[in-house]
Design a protein that fits this description.
By secondary structure, the protein is an alpha/beta fold. The protein has four helices and nine strands; from the N terminus they run βαββββαββααββ. The strands form two sheets. It has a five-stranded mixed beta sheet with strand order 8-1-6-7-9. A four-stranded mixed beta sheet has the order 3-2-5-4.
Length: about 180
């Protein structure tokens, strides 16, 4: 049995709605899954291009701000509807077996992230990939910053990237911040 390509990163409808609000104020967006330091392990949201992506950072995928929850996209998102989600190469090495689900919860966001003044914050929930999903992902490696600079794009997953909530995506835990 062949497993459809799972999304490496997904977002809840609540996170999509907050991203849509932030896009209306700041223009195109990008996200980076923080690995610690000042803002813990919170996903950070920036205006597109404001966070410098390194050659070894990994593009987990593109969130589609135009997508309905629980509907697989027939094509990759384009323009300002596409929100790339990045992670550092070493951190990807540790989490490559885990699907990240970006959610939104009440509370103060990270000091460097655009949602900080909103009284809301992004939170990463996660679930481990199955063995079949890991095999499918091995055949479609996530592109690095250097590869994206050369024109590579992430493979289109066969599942929705926007989900109703973390439970709908099978989230089993939230990453601490």
């Amino acid at each position: 049995m062949t497993t459809a390509l799972p999304a490496r990163v997904r977002a809840t409808a609540a996170a999509r709605d907050l991203l849509t609000t932030l896009r209306s104020r700041h223009g195109a967006l990008m996200m980076h899954q923080s690995g610690g330091c000042c803002d813990g392990s919170a996903p950070m949201c920036f205006p597109a291009g404001e966070f410098l992506v390194g050659d070894h950072d990994v593009l987990l995928g593109l969130l589609d701000l135009a997508a309905e929850a629980d509907t697989a996209a027939p094509a990759p998102p384009e323009g300002d509807d596409a929100v790339p989600v990045w992670i550092s190469g070493p951190q990807f090495g540790a989490w490559h077996h885990t699907q990240l689900i970006i959610d939104m919860v009440p509370g103060r966001g990270g000091g460097f992230s655009l949602e900080a003044p909103e009284g809301l914050r992004f939170l990463t929930r996660s679930r481990p990939f199955t063995d079949g999903e890991i095999a499918a992902l091995a055949a479609a490696p996530a592109p690095t910053g250097a590869q994206v600079e050369a024109g590579a794009v992430p493979a289109l997953p066969g599942e929705p990237v926007i989900v109703a909530d973390g439970a709908a995506a099978g989230a089993v835990c939230a990453l601490p911040d």
